[in-house]
Amino acid sequence: MASERPLSTPLNQILPPLILGGAGFSYQHTSTPSVEQTREVVSLAFQLGVRAIDTSPYYEPSEELLGEALSHPQFTSKYDRNDYILMTKVGRVSATKSDFSPEWVRFSVARSLQRLRTDYLDVVFCHDIELVEEENVLEAIAVLNEMVEAGTIRYIGISGYPIDTLARVARRSREMYGRPLDVIQNWAQLTLQNDRLEREGLQVFREAGVSCVCSSSPLASGLLRGEGVPIAALGDWHPAPEGLRRAAHAAAVYVASQGEILARLALRYALWRAKVCSTGNVRVGTIMGGTSVAEIEENITTAVGVLGRDGETLGWNGAGREVESSNDSADVQDLELFRAVQEILGQWRNYSFSGENPATEGDVVQTKL
């Protein structure tokens, strides 16, 4: 099945502002990921305007579950394959193993095509590139370039946490292959807790020729919510130290005392900043998670309030309820809560999971009540 989308169309012209994250259908985030639940979540997300999905073989068994959902007759009767963007990754194999060799990249893409039940992938990222030598990543990008020429994939990206590493590999890739990467995915750094992607990342990515950024983990992988970090079948994998967890909990308690929910507030902040940063030819899409129908419905309702709609889908030009004097202004009450949460986080604000600017583990958290 060939895509009707012109291959020359830059990704920043078609990337939507909200993307459904496939990690919610993995053992990292839920103990019992299921076909039925995935199908229900995907159907509702599309009904509410989502038109892009991001996953990875590492998010086991996300690809298989999504493939079942996307190929189900109830879904295919409403949506064609070219109606949505499907993104996956290569390289990250398990918690302790990565493989960016040409042989594995080819195998991984072929397996993803089979699992997702499609004959092309819109975006393939090299996953968590900081875990291997940069030369290995550049070698993998060469293979992905071949796949773009063959029509197997449409766009190429890299993903990871350290902004400096992502920018350096993007520059080197552009120098080696004569074209910039289409997209970079960075996690947990356009959030109420850490905004380094906005302050530093977007500029260096732009200098490397990258005009599309996917900001994932707007809740810092579940840190910014009242329930605390997710603990599922794979146990407690979250990198936040205990002091940061206490600070996040204190922030959740304060926000609740003001009649709001931290997760909802944090999502509004991330979407607002991504929208503000999407200027000119640069687009910042937010990858939003969710493991249940109720969670997805609440998250997308929150997103609509910030992003508005373009027709039936979530779009860049809609005006949401958070608008004050312009489409880039957050609600005054939200601004006050944003500042309060960041004050509670104190020295843990902008704490980096990669070890940059660490706070002190014993910092005392003062709860604002």
Automatic annotation (TrEMBL):
Domain (NADP-dependent oxidoreductase) ranges: 17-301
Keywords in alphabetical order, please. Oxidoreductase
List, in alphabetical order, the Gene Ontology terms for molecular function in this entry: D-arabinose 1-dehydrogenase [NAD(P)+] activity
GO cellular component entries: cytosol
* Alphabetical list of InterPro entries matching this protein: AKR, NAD(P)_OxRdtase_dom_sf, NADP_OxRdtase_dom
Picking any one GO biological process from the record gives: dehydro-D-arabinono-1,4-lactone biosynthetic process
Cross-referenced PANTHER family: GH17980P-RELATED (PTHR42686)
Report what the protein is called: NADP-dependent oxidoreductase domain-containing protein
Which species does this protein come from?
Aspergillus mulundensis
